[in-house]
Amino acid sequence: MFDFLDLEQYDLFGAFWTTVQLTVFSAIGSLIWGTILAGMRVSPVPIMRSFGTAYVHIFRNTPLTLIIVFCSLGLYQTLGMTMFAEGNVDTIGFRLAVLGFIAYTSTFVCEALRSGINTVPVGQAEAARALGLSFTQVLRIVVLPQAFRSVVAPLANVLIALTKNTTVAAAISVAEAAALMRTMIENEANLIPIALLFAIGFIILTLPTGLLLGWLAKRVAVKR
Amino acid sequence: MTNLSVLYDAPGPRAKRRNVLYAVLFVAVLGAFFWWVLQTMADKNQLDAEKWDVFVTDSRIWTTFLWPGLQNTLIAASLSLVIALPLGVLFGIGRLSDHWWIRRPCDVIVEFFRAVPVLLMMIFANAAYAEWSNIDRDVRPLYAVVTGLVLYNASVLAEIVRAGVQTLPRGQGEAARAIGLRKGQTMVFVLLPQAVTAMLPAIVSQLVVIVKDTTLGGAMLGYSELLTNARLVSTNYANTIAAYTVAALIFIALNFLLTSLASWLEKRLRRGKRGTGTVVKVDPSGLMDQPGGVALTPDVSVPEPRAVATTGASPDSARTDVTS
């Protein structure tokens, strides 16, 4: 059934490895940028709050495909941003895709974190302020650690969605799983086995992530 | 902590000055960034007036590209929702079934299609239609896009339906059983109508996801929706940045409208729900002579099935009758 699978011709593991790399780099980037955005959205400086709100509304309502395609056609081909990888088209495409995923996914991280901040009891922040902590200290030492623990499950969902969303990078010819699947479908006759193969690949990627982070969410949740 | 100002003290004179300083610094950084972006765009002649004013001066951009593109986006999105909704309800109910041979397959199907990227399903559907059906080449991308979106969103909606039914107060199902409704009747007449109203905001939010995902069909299958047509604009008028910006603005406006509709619905339903919530709360407390009569009427108007259930041969048979 799987005799079409010529691993010499089709770099299946390489393609899924690219998917994993896209996911990991984008996840780290969106976690950092999303946390900064969430901090801005709750900060005492009004202009930062409005910037955070505007950013989230703009990027969450823009289709991811548009962002990714714009990164390639707009940023790279029109404006000539090479992401510090002159000449190496593959690396440029990969980095542009990661940039697009971070810009999009961070809005979901930001919103998840903000709802996590809402679950922290008011007394925690009040006590922290009574100790004389500044806003950044309140956020960094008291509120955010508790907020993070309560949003592990939503963040896991964001991560799983991100894993699936990395297929969009195929639109700018990054050699990841969806691009390979399209090539294989064009060249081989075994449509259903190929589709099943890639579907199972993604289930293998997303299922353990969900189970592991679900377990972690229960373990670190703040009992209230 | 819904009022986020508990995170910081009310600013005194020093804090106010510091906040102003932060604001100025932030604006400076932001301004520098935008200046750099605009400078780069100007270097590549992307700020030239003729690249942007065509959207105002040349109506053909709208009549031949953007408006038909938006129409196709909306067609694919609404078709997907209309087909996915009944399927989602079916699978959602299936996952709540008492029979394992209905529940398990529904679980597997829903979990499978939720775990697989929607783009893979679109590519697969496109290839499958090309190989095993005689759907015309021109409409095949539409079929593939809708199929992929339906498969994915039906499973998401199934989860929404399941959650909607499960969050209903338990008394609703129990009361329906108590008056002798069969399980199908309980679902159709009691649980689903309430669950659907509770789910409405979630369904509208899902429509935002569907609208955004139609662009996948444009980029990968050549379905001529808004993004594809924006690309055509950019090749015809050599204004990549402008074309994509305008397309993004249309998407943002459309999705913002849908999101606002969803939150308006949610607010409205929450206000309405408070009414039924009190009715449900009154019921278990045994206040059957409660004025208003909402809690009272079901008891009076449907005495017959209840009598049948209680006068059945044995309590066991009555229960199996209710749960079967």
TrEMBL record, chain A:
UniProt membrane topology term: Multi-pass membrane protein
Stored InterPro entries: AA_ABC_transptr_permease_3TM (IPR010065), ArtM/GltK/GlnP/TcyL/YhdX-like (IPR043429), MetI-like (IPR000515), MetI-like_sf (IPR035906)
Keywords assigned by UniProt, alphabetized: Amino-acid transport, Cell membrane, Membrane, Transmembrane, Transmembrane helix, Transport
One MF annotation (Gene Ontology) recorded for this entry: transmembrane transporter activity
Main localization (coarse): membrane
Subcellular location: Cell membrane
PROSITE patterns, per the entry: ABC_TM1
ABC transmembrane type-1 domain: residues covered: 16-213
Annotated Gene Ontology cellular component terms: ATP-binding cassette (ABC) transporter complex
Any matching Pfam family: BPD_transp_1
Protein family (similarity comment): Belongs to the binding-protein-dependent transport system permease family. HisMQ subfamily.
Name of protein: ABC transporter permease subunit
From TrEMBL, chain B:
Molecular function (Gene Ontology), one example: transmembrane transporter activity
Primary localisation category: membrane
UniProt xrefs under Pfam families: BPD_transp_1
Biological processes, Gene Ontology terms: amino acid transport
Membrane topology note: Multi-pass membrane protein
Lineage, broadest ranks: Bacteria, Bacillati, Actinomycetota, Actinomycetes, Kitasatosporales
Name of the protein in question: Amino acid ABC transporter permease
Source organism (scientific name): Streptomyces hainanensis
UniProt keywords, alphabetically: Cell membrane, Membrane, Transmembrane, Transmembrane helix, Transport
ABC transmembrane type-1 domain ranges (all copies): 70-262
Taxonomy, superkingdom: Bacteria
NCBIfam families reported in the protein's UniProt record: HEQRo_perm_3TM
Transmembrane region(s): 20-38, 74-96, 108-130, 142-165, 186-211, 241-265
Similarity comment text for this entry: Belongs to the binding-protein-dependent transport system permease family.
Region listing for Disordered, in residue ranges: 280-324
Assigned GO CC terms: ATP-binding cassette (ABC) transporter complex
Subcellular location: Cell membrane
InterPro entries documented for this protein: AA_ABC_transptr_permease_3TM, ArtM/GltK/GlnP/TcyL/YhdX-like, MetI-like, MetI-like_sf
